[in-house]
C-alpha cells in the first residue's frame, strides 16, 4: 500500500477545499439556510406537525441529505474530472499507485468535505429550530456512509464525463429530481396510493427516511430496508469503480 | 552493460483501430542517454507512454529494472520519472507543493531538503511559492521536470523536452541531463531536433510509423556524417565506371551523366586530387564538381522515406 500517495492526494484535495471555502462550504450552507427560513420559519409555522415533529424540524434531515448528496457528487466528480481535463492525470497513471489508493485519496477527501458541510448545516439548523437527535452515533455513521457512497458515485461520473457539460448532466437530470422527490420535504406516507409505490423505487427515499429516523426515531420505511438499500448502492458503485480501473475505461488508453 | 529498459515485441493498437506501434524491440542500457528521433505521429509518445504505464500495451512485454510494467507496475514505476510533452499542471498549486505532491505520489516520505535541491538545480527555488498558473511557459516546463525528479528516478523519460523552449532553457536542460547522467540516471528523450540528439545522446534511435528503423551509437552515426560525397558531372554519359577507376568505388549517377565519389573528410588524404588525375587519364571529361555532406538529417530523412 502506497500510504504516501494516499496522503498527498487527500491533502491536496483538502487544500482545494480550503482555497475555495466560499464555494465549497459557505455557499451550500447559505442556500440550505434559505430553505430553513422559507420552509421552516415562514411556511412551516402554518403546516401541521408531521409524525409529531414540527415541520421546521422535520425537513432538517432531508435538507442535510440533499446538500450532502449534491456536494459529494459535485466535489468528487470535479476532483477526478479536472486532472483528466487538463491532462495532469498522466502523473497519477504513471505513478506506483493502485486504484485502491487513488479512490481512497479522492473519494475519502470528497466524503470528509461532505461530512464537514453536513455538520456545519446541522449546527446552522439549531439557529432556526429546536432539534432532538435520538441516535447521534447512527446519525453520524449515516452521514459518513452517504457521503462516501455518493462521493464514489461522483467519482464514477467524473471519469465517465467527456466534458464539463456531461459533468453537470447527471446531477441536474437525475440527482436533483430524485432528491426533491426523495421525501426531504414530506413523509412518503403523505403521498396518495400509487405515488407512494413509485416513490419506493427512489433510492434517496431510503436514505432520507433512515436519516430522519436517527433524529426523530420514526421512519417511512423500515430501518433495516433502508440500510440494505444503502449497502446495495455502495456495493454497486464499488463494483463500477473496480471495473473502471480493471479495464482502464476512459482513463487508460 | 545490462539493459535497464527492455521492450520486446511491443504492439499498440488504439480503440480507433490505429496501429501506433508495430512489434517494437528496444534495449536501453543503464546510464545511457538515448534519443528517439521521428516525425510527428511516428509513435514516439505512444512508446514512452506505454513504458510509463499511461497506455496499455496490446501485446508484448516491457520490463524496467527487471520489473514487468503491467504485472509488477509498482516496482517498475518506482524507477521511472516522466516529463510529458504538453504542459499539464494543476494551475492553482504552488510550485513547492506540486513537486512535493509528486514525491508523495511515488511513495516517498516528505523531504523538504531534497525538494529544495531539485528546485535549485532547475533555477526554480525563488519561484517555490509562486502559483503555477502565473509562471511563464518555460518555468512551467521546469516545474514538469522538477516533478519528474522529485522521487529520484533511475530512468527519466523526456517527451519532446525542447518543443517551444527558448535557447537558454534548452541549454539549462541539457546541463541538467548531463548532471543526471553523471549520477547514473538513464535518460530517454524524444525529439524532432537532430541537433539535440547530436548534442546530448549516446545512442540515437529512429522511429517511424510505429517501427524502430535504427538504433545506433551516435559515434557511428557521426562517422557516417563525417563522409562527404563528390559529384562529378561528365560531358558524355558512360555505361559503366572504367576498370582503371575501380579502386575509387565510384557510384554511377543518373543516366551515367555523373560519377559519385564518397570520401572521409577526417582522413589524411581524401584522394580527390589523384581521382581527378585518373579520370582525365581514363579519358573522361568533367563539366562540373559539387560536394555534399551527409548529415544525420540525410540519414534520418532517408530512413523515414524507406531508403537508406
Structure description:
- The complex is a heterodimer of chains A (253) and B (308).
- Chain A is mostly helical and 253 residues long.
- Chain A has one domain (3-247).
- Helices cover 76% and strands 0% of the residues of chain A.
- Chain A has helices at residues 3-19, 21-43, 55-86, 89-94, 99-125, 136-160, 164-180, 193-199, 203-216, 223-247.
- In chain A, helix 3 (55-86) packs antiparallel against helix 7 (164-180) and helix 5 (99-125) packs across helix 6 (136-160).
- Chain A is globular and about 60 Å long.
- With 308 residues, chain B is α/β, with parallel strands linked by helices.
- Chain B has three domains: 1-79 and 154-169 and 177-225, P-loop containing nucleotide triphosphate hydrolases (Rossmann fold, 3-Layer(aba) Sandwich); 86-152, no CATH class; 226-304, 2-Layer Sandwich (Alpha-Beta Plaits), CATH 3.30.70.
- Helices cover 32% and strands 29% of the residues of chain B.
- Chain B is built from ten helices and 14 strands.
- In chain B, the strands form three sheets. In chain B, strands 6-7-8-3-9-10 form a six-stranded mixed β-sheet, sandwiched between helices. A four-stranded antiparallel β-sheet of chain B has the order 2-1-4-5. A four-stranded antiparallel β-sheet of chain B has the order 12-13-11-14.
- In chain B, helix 3 packs across helix 4.
- Chain B is elongated, with a radius of gyration of 25 Å.
- The model of chain B has no long low-confidence stretch (mean pLDDT 89).
Provide keyphrases for this structure.
heterodimer, A: mainly alpha, 10 helices, B: about 300 residues, Rossmann fold, 3 domains, four-stranded antiparallel sheet, 14 strands, about 30% helix
Set out the fold topology:
The complex is a heterodimer of chains A (253) and B (308).
Chain A: H1 3-19, H2 21-43, H3 55-86, H4 89-94, H5 99-125, H6 136-160, H7 164-180, H8 193-199, H9 203-216, H10 223-247
Helix pairs in contact in A: 1-2, 1-5, 2-3, 2-5, 3-5, 3-6, 3-7, 3-9, 5-6, 6-9, 6-10, 9-10
Chain B: E1 3-13, E2 19-29, E3 33-37, H1 44-52, E4 59-64, E5 67-68, H2 73-78, E6 80-83, H3 95-105, H4 112-121, H5 137-149, E7 155-159, H6 167-182, E8 186-191, H7 194-200, E9 203-208, E10 211-217, H8 218-225, E11 227-234, E12 251-252, E13 258-264, H9 272-281, E14 286-293, H10 296-304
Helix pairs in contact in B: 3-4, 3-5
